[in-house]
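Protein record
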Amino acid sequence: MKNVYITRGTAEFMEKIKKKNPGEKMILMHGNGGSQLLHETEDKTVFQTPNRYEVVAEVGQLQEHGFFALNNISISDEGKPIFEDRFKREHPAMESTPGFIAFRLLRPIGSDTYILLSEWDDSKSFDLYKHNPAFEAAYDSTRKDIVAGPAFHIFTSAPYLTFYSSLHNQDNE
């Protein structure tokens, strides 16, 4: 199974790790006041203390140069199968959006926060997708297929978006 590992640190240190491991698929991202290095592999990671994820669904190949939107969503243990099934079915809507590069549905290992990682040519492409009816439907928390009745909610906290760019000085907002 393919995994994604994410570690954070200074841009210089992340670049050093990346250069030390040229045979590994690593993407250096900058934004939200820091830098992070993403390692996608079917083997073990070279990182010492990363956040760990299993790739549950994927579309396209992650590229080294792009704009990355990470939707961080905390899900209850009971809600994980519902959440995964829903996004496995609904992520294809973004594929037809101009500027789309890749998507990963990342299941957390050792935490409850999933990441919906999407890569775009630039932030304008992501903004175009955000205003698409498919995006609004996918993130509508009032839908009946997200909750199994009023007492059962799959979300354990409010989701939040983080943005990164492969370019160190690019505006990520």
Notes: The domain at 3-165 is CATH 3.30.70.100 (Alpha-Beta Plaits). The first helix runs from residue 11 to 20. The helical segments are 11-20, 80-90, 123-130, 133-138.
